[in-house]
Amino acid sequence: NAGVTQTPKFQVLKTGQSMTLQCAQDMNHEYMSWYRQDPGMGLRLIHYSVGAGITDQGEVPNGYNVSRSTTEDFPLRLLSAAPSQTSVYFCASSYSWAAPNSPLHFGNGTRLTVT
Amino acid sequence: AQTVTQSQPEMSVQEAETVTLSCTYDTSESDYYLFWYKQPPSRQMILVIRQEAYKQQNATENRFSVNFQKAAKSFSLKISDSQLGDAAMYFCAYRSADNNNDMRFGAGTRLTVKP
């Protein structure tokens, strides 16, 4: 059971470059989300999706795009990377957005550095 | 918006002893869910324990238990018989029952376990 799989684990970008962080889950979870983790700030929600074809913004969406064409995949796109986007990114999923007591299952994270 | 505060950036405990990590939150809602997540050096986020606000009984999971004080908006985590493997960052998280697409995290507490 792979759970939530994120790729890559590490990435270095130059300012202005674009890239996509991949996230896939094999648990048939409705809800998927992207968080960024910065020192002293915990995790902050970037974007989320409650099902295929449905996405919405979280707390810190600027500079990021998402799409959800299938239940399994939820990629995060950085269109023009900035040093402020240097962070650790986590993809997470849960069984149903309508069940708030269901825990989030996290991927192993991607450490992104923008120079 | 709800906020979650973890006032202890770092804590240490002697192996086999007991330690309590603090968490407070700010909300005007009556129905919500609280979680503790553990992040070891591997970076993987692991659910430790969860509590439904409508339940008065404190949740327990083996050596982990919580002290949930709804009126005080406090949700502390007690780790009994601490083990070396408990060393990690611990995050407290809040999830609304009404707006359950957003889980709010505290800044985290780094726990060190001394042999």
Describe the fold and architecture.
The complex is a heterodimer of chains A (115) and B (115). Chain A has 115 residues and is an all-beta fold. Chain A has strands spanning 4-7, 10-13, 19-25, 31-38, 42-51, 54-57, 64-66, 76-78, 87-94, 105-106, 110-114. In chain B, 0% of the residues lie in helices and 53% in strands. Chain B has strands at residues 3-5, 10-14, 19-21, 24-26, 32-39, 46-52, 60-61, 64-69, 74-79, 88-96, 103-105, 109-114. In chain B, strands 2, 5, 6, 10, 11 and 12 form a 6-stranded mixed beta sheet that branches. The interface between A and B is medium-sized, with 27 and 27 residues.
Topology:
The complex is a heterodimer of chains A (about 120) and B (about 120).
Chain A: E1 4-7, E2 10-13, E3 19-25, E4 31-38, E5 42-51, E6 54-57, E7 64-66, E8 76-78, E9 87-94, E10 105-106, E11 110-114
Parallel strand pairs in A: 2-11
Antiparallel strand pairs in A: 1-3, 3-8, 4-5, 4-9, 5-6, 7-8, 9-10, 9-11
Chain B: E1 3-5, E2 10-14, E3 19-21, E4 24-26, E5 32-39, E6 46-52, E7 60-61, E8 64-69, E9 74-79, E10 88-96, E11 103-105, E12 109-114
Parallel strand pairs in B: 2-12
Antiparallel strand pairs in B: 1-4, 3-9, 5-6, 5-10, 7-8, 8-9, 10-11, 10-12
Summarize the structure.
Chain A is mainly β and 115 residues long. Chain A has strands at residues 4-7, 10-13, 19-25, 31-38, 42-51, 54-57, 64-66, 76-78, 87-94, 105-106, 110-114.
Structural class of chain A: mainly beta
Q: Please, how many helices of chain A?
A: 0
Question: Distance N terminus to C terminus of chain A?
Answer: 36 Å
Mean pLDDT rating of chain A: 93
Net shape of chain A: globular
Q: Tell me the quaternary state.
A: heterodimer
State the helical fraction of chain B.
Answer: under 10%
How would the global form of chain B be characterised?
globular
